[in-house]
Amino acid sequence: METNIAGEKVFYVDYTWPELDALDRAGTVLVLPSGAVEEHGAHLTLANDSTAAAEVALRAAREIPGVIVMPCLWYTPSLDTSNYMGTISIRPTNFVNYVCDILESLYRHGFRQLVVANVHGGAKTVLDVAIREFHHRMGNAERAYNDDFFIHLHNVYAVPADYLNTLVEGRESGHACELETSVDMYLFPERVQPEKAVEEYIPWEEGFEWYIGDMHAVNRNGVHGDATKASAEKGEKVVNALVSALADILRKLVEGHTWA
């Protein structure tokens, strides 16, 4: 059973209901990892985003008493890659309602601080909508925006992006690329088939941001980046940066920092 440096249980589901009931729930910081069941080329498994999200959350929470990690959101919207074999994509409207149900349950139980640690690009905007929808639903006649549940959407790769870009040797990175491949080579080497790694890019014009489209129609392998440049050594640097960025906000919340 995973515990933190203070000997407290790390995983939400490892607690009994009386143990949760005895916590200072308003002062506890929850982490909700978010990933996907989605293709990641021929060299990585469908679990890449979810296992990375869960592991980054665990490593950050181990170092900070008062932080508890929720079970990962495995099934999320993955429309762009849904035409590759194996990808499971959830309708955005269903996903929003599902996330709202989770948030409403936590609110009802007295938790008031949550960080969503998201690794999956296809879920970023939908998670943002879900959080906004939750706050809208919790409004009342006196306050249209009930903000007594602090929820922060933390896109795991976004915060340390400037540093991560210095590690990239390929033209770009983005999906099943050298960064994601390196993370698995460091954390879960048994999940990587490096001999099947390729360099491939979605053929969009330079300067365009990632847009919604059928990746399978223009990209044979389901890779955007140069996965052949991946290494476990690079993966350790990536993971340390991801964990450090997440731990920073968790530590601030535990210490009572507010963004009001």
The biggest sheet, with number of strands, parallel, antiparallel or mixed sense and barrel status, is:
4 strands, parallel
Number of helices: 8
CATH C-level class is Alpha Beta
Per DSSP E runs of 2 or more residues, the count of β-strands stands at 7
User: What's the architecture in CATH terms?
Assistant: 3-Layer(aba) Sandwich
What gyration radius follows from the Cα positions, in whole Å? 19 Å
What's the overall geometry? globular
CATH superfamily: Creatininase
Chain-averaged pLDDT:
94
CATH topology: Rossmann fold
Helix content: 25-40%
Q: What is the first-to-last residue Cα distance? A: 36 Å
Would you mind describing this structure in some detail?
The protein is of the alpha/beta class and 260 residues long. It has one domain (12-254): Creatininase (Rossmann fold). Helices cover 37% and strands 11% of the residues. It has helices at 17-21, 48-62, 92-108, 124-137, 161-167, 178-187, 215-218, 232-254, and strands spanning 29-34, 67-69, 113-118, 150-155, 173-175, 199-200, 224-226. Strand 1, helix 2 (48-62) and strand 2 (67-69) form a beta-alpha-beta unit. Helix 3 (92-108) packs across helix 4. The chain starts with 16 loop residues before the first helix and ends in a 6-residue tail after the last helix. The model has no long low-confidence stretch (mean pLDDT 94).
